[in-house]
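Worked example

This section walks through a single chain of length 123. The input is the sequence exactly as stored; nothing has been trimmed or padded.
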Amino acid sequence: MNSFTSVSLDPPLALVSIHKEAKACTSMKDKAFTINILSDEQESIAWQFAGSKQEILEIDWHNKGISPKINGSVAWLECTPWREYDAGDHVLFIGEIKELHFEDLEALTFYQGEMGFAKQLVK
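Given that input, the structure is written out below as tokens.
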């Protein structure tokens, strides 16, 4: 997933769109999930999840709570399943945000085909 969308404040809902052929699509059905906002120090993790295998990569997972989170992220949103919709070649998963955590870090961004952080990419 490269983006998520806020859907509602009451209840607090977020949407992720997953390609039907992605491994995550079948494993997300009726399961809690976490939206991790990666830091600018976690580019290799982003490439790994984008399908570009990173040879030397250890992801530091935090396994407490309703679903695993990636330590070192700028923020994470823990979600329980709320609704799921077929959307052509994607499935839209809407989760109810149960927990939110954030750190004072630079977020990793993807802009015009490049990864970096906002101040670096916007010229």
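What to look for: The mean pLDDT is 89.
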